Amino acid sequence: MRLIDGPVTPTVISDTVAKYGENPDTGAHSIFLGQVRKDLIEGRYVKAIDYSAYEEMVIMEADKINKTILSEFDDVKTLEIVHSKGIVKRGEISLLVMVSAGHRQQAAVACAKAVELIKEKLPIWKKEVFEDDTQKWKQE
Amino acid sequence: MEISVLFFGVLAEVTGTHQKHYRGINSFSDLKHRIGDDFPEIVHYSFRIAVNNKIINEDPVLNGGDEVAYLPPFAGG
Fold it and tell me: Which of A22, A31, B16, B55 has its CA 20 to 30 A from that of A98?
């Protein structure tokens, strides 16, 4: 698990694919990318999200998610999570989840489960920044 | 004992601080009352509390140097 300042860039994504592609036992990667959306809220369009996190607890909880996924899916080799902190503009990526497995079935299901656990368990908050520069904490 | 209290998300904004140290704390209940006195507006927000990075479901026994965190509903992703 990594928390990085600003967006998850195409370089971060391709470097992650290259890194986990080196495992010869892997036959499938499933990747989820979360992107900042141009939501319309009370007449204002979102132009960015400002993420904040309880970093120490994020790392601990991500480690638990990793253990959960690896124990539940015996074909899964690795789970990598990269999440943004700070400002991410709309259209940019704020979350990368990559599950590498021997075969595609477990890769896909484990990736979907990991995303749900990330949203439920990681102490991360987002403040929406609108085009008129007003801001609002997002409650999910 | 001394306890470090962290506020995150909307609660950092409402309290105007990310971290506050409390001295002379006798118990968790004592701490909660001191925080409530300092920041009465937080009762209007939903949150969970973590002690040393673990979310608690009932009042724990605090030890000096513990880190208590006020956590609004998570919104990652």
Answer: B55
Whether residue A15 contacts residue A97, with contact meaning beta carbons closer than 8 Å, is answered with no
Which percentage of chain A shows pLDDT scores above 70? 99
Distant-in-sequence, close-in-space partners of A18: CB < 8 Å, separation ≥ 6 = none
ipTM above 0.85? yes
| B54-55/A76-89 β-pairing | unpaired
Task: Give the per-residue pLDDT at A131.
Answer: 97
Q: Which two tokens stand for residue B1?
A: 């004992």
Alpha-carbon gap, residue B61 to B44, rounded angstroms: 26
**Interface touch A124/B74, C-beta < 8 Å:** yes
B73 with B49: CB under 8 angstroms?
no
The pTM of this model reads 0.95
How many CA atoms are closer than 13 Å to the CA of A132, on its beta-carbon side?
Answer: 8
